[in-house]
Specification:
Elements: H1 4-17, H2 29-47, H3 52-70, H4 74-86, H5 88-110
Length: about 120
């Protein structure tokens, strides 16, 4: 028992030192944040559409555009989302940054236009 305890502690400490690296077949966090930002921008646009049928048709094309922009497809996006759902800390950290970026965009768009001074000649 005395020999097993130090070995067990060594194994536990080595296991805890390993960093959780994200698999290569998953969209990496920096890129995933950009994808999710664009997805949420599309969602916001779709929610402003008056007719559900036209929103449904438009949404498919817009989502495909997001995937194309980022060089991914819906399968990779879904697989990556599943991975991040299983790692809530990573997902939470990403969404904190996405939320800040969305708020900054909203504030920018809601700013009143600056009136330029017009000189009378």
């Amino acid at each position: 028992m005395r020999r097993i305890l130090p070995l067990l502690l060594l194994i536990i400490s080595l296991a805890s030192c390993q960093t959780d690296s994200i698999p290569k077949d998953i969209i990496q966090p920096v890129k995933m944040e950009k994808v999710l930002y664009d997805i949420h921008m599309v969602d916001g646009y779709i929610n402003t559409m008056p007719k559900p049928d036209s929103a449904k048709q438009t949404s498919a094309a817009l989502y495909k555009g997001v995937y194309k922009k980022h060089g991914i497809d819906s399968v990779l996006y879904t697989k990556s989302m599943d991975y991040y759902y299983e790692h809530p800390k990573l997902m939470s950290d990403m969404y904190e940054r996405i939320k800040k970026k969305l708020e900054a965009t909203k504030n920018y768009l809601n700013k009143p236009p600056v009136k330029k001074a017009v000189k009378k000649v």
